[in-house]
Amino acid sequence: MATSEVLHPLPGSMPWHHGLHCDPCRRMSSIPLCFKVHPTPSGISGVQDSKGKRYPAYTNRCPKKQFIPPWRVVTKRLHCLSCECQRFEGSPGTSDDGSNGSFLPDETNKLNPSSAREKLAAAAAKKEKAMRVKADSIEDEAWELLRESIVYYCGHPVGTIAANDPSSTSILNYDQVFIRDFVPSGVAFLLKGEYDIVRNFILHTLQLQSWEKTMDCHSPGQGLMPASFKVRTIPLDGDDSATEEVLDPDFGEAAIGLWWIILLRAYGKCSGDLSVQERVDVQTGIKMILKLCLADGFDMFPTLLVTDGSCMIDRRMGIHGHPLEIQALFYSALLCAREMLAPEDGSADLIRALNSRLVALSFHIREYYWIDMRKLNEIYRYKTEEYSYDAVNKFNIYPDQIPPWLVEWMPDKGGYLIGNLQPAHMDFRFFALGNLWSIVSSLAASEQAHAILDLVEARWDDLVADMPFKICYPALENQEWRILTGGDPKNTPWSYHNGGSWPTLLWQLAVACIKLNRPEIAVKAVEIAERRISRDKWPEYYDTKGARFIGKQSRLFQTWSIAGYLLAKLLLAKPKRAKILISEEDLDLVNSFSSLLAKPRRKRSRKGHKQSYIV
Ligand code: GLC
């Protein structure tokens, strides 16, 4: 980049003039984020280390009006950053509910062991208690590990490292703070009343959103969040005795910031501190993400078009196009953003676009992604090459695409949302996160949501087996694996993203089950995980069809496995807390949805009638 510009001014900050001064100090207490993206000397994007690597330009505000290069955070000056981040005692949004309706085993029913039957019961209770003690210690261990994974920037917690595996010889990028990986950690901290780390994370990643990013000569649109970032300590120029800390974002595979919006809402709901979401820069950040997602493109569908590997599955797995996970997160983020956007004249158009997208998206997913026995039979009998508005087979799906495994696998009771839909292509694989989050966000209609859990119960041995939860089912094998993954040696059948089992998915399962008032399903899954997760050292994922082995290249002490388990426990213990993550069905949406269904099919688009999306 050859330009020098303030990428994203913070509200209330003075414009910075290169080479003149840095801003007067404001303590971390008033705004935890005392950093601002500053212009850099012309032609230089951020700071460069001795190997020529560039870092983003951040600065702290310092007490003296002396010249300090603006892209520096000097650890020597840390004393001026003492943190008085506000704590919010109690959680207005999720106040503890005394008896709390916990779904976990209750100890209060002590039995009197006078008869044989009572003795048996007492033995069972003892065993249960022993199990609880064990479980409690697993929980304690998980908390300890989670705290050890905290990453600090200038003395303040800003996130958690992806994995803390002392046995691993190759770190790869697991020493970074991944945006999506932090969500379960962040929510666990929120539920513990530790809000600072989440607030700092939200505000720092917001700053990274504005950082100029390029891939070769191309700069993607503003609004993209990095997928991860890292705190680096590098030597301070011209001073051998000092080092400085810089935040180094990784835009390698772009994230859209959907999780960021979801976490921001959870933060506000849990802490009661709405001042973060009300900040001008945060409101701008939300709008930037929305504009990016709602921008017109070539696409005809209301679903969001992404490349392969844009979600939890971040390598080639044949899910380019409109993968369910992205649609569920998109829907969820739109609802959360609508709740948080400050009403102002300037955002009326955006809110309108957002509302119409919500209707179109939910209609599209509920109608075209849904399959159960009835729908499958309908597809099986589809006629093809229908070219009219009345076409039943709108996407021209060839019935031959129904895979043989599905004919056996679809239970009589239950159903699910398919993984992806494109012209002439339905990806029938079951993707766990997309389905679970469709329940949580109400993207799936209520009966569909229940049917998804029915399917989970009916296919427990495939989806949970020895360790919850299968990331997708079934695995790609043979030629299909070779073609769709490009022969990826990490994604071999029933490993990693290709049918591996991921303990982190426990928390999304817990939220979905709590929302539908069927917590016993998640409780059962947590108990299965507890049998071995700690002994196995908290692996990132498990391999084989039945999840019997620790994954081939799985990291140990993977933070989101730890946090996913912990969060599931916290939520099941006090289910009302799940409210901070759940979006209930929107009645306005339901009404628009039913009027869409009631409308007779249009024969031909009327002139002057603006139809934004094909639903
Ligand atoms: C794997 C996961 C990805 C996660 C990353 C770091 O690549 O697929 O979702 O963020 O590991 O843990």
TrEMBL record:
Function: Invertase that cleaves sucrose into glucose and fructose.
UniProt-recorded name of the protein: Alkaline/neutral invertase
Region entry Disordered, spans: 88-115
Lineage: Eukaryota, Viridiplantae, Streptophyta, Embryophyta, Tracheophyta
Record's keyword terms, sorted: Carbohydrate metabolism, Glycosidase, Hydrolase
Gene3D superfamilies recorded: 1.50.10.10
GO biological process, one term: sucrose catabolic process
Coiled-coil residues: none
InterPro entries registered for this protein in UniProt: 6-hairpin_glycosidase_sf, 6hp_glycosidase-like_sf, Glyco_hydro_100
Enzyme class: hydrolase
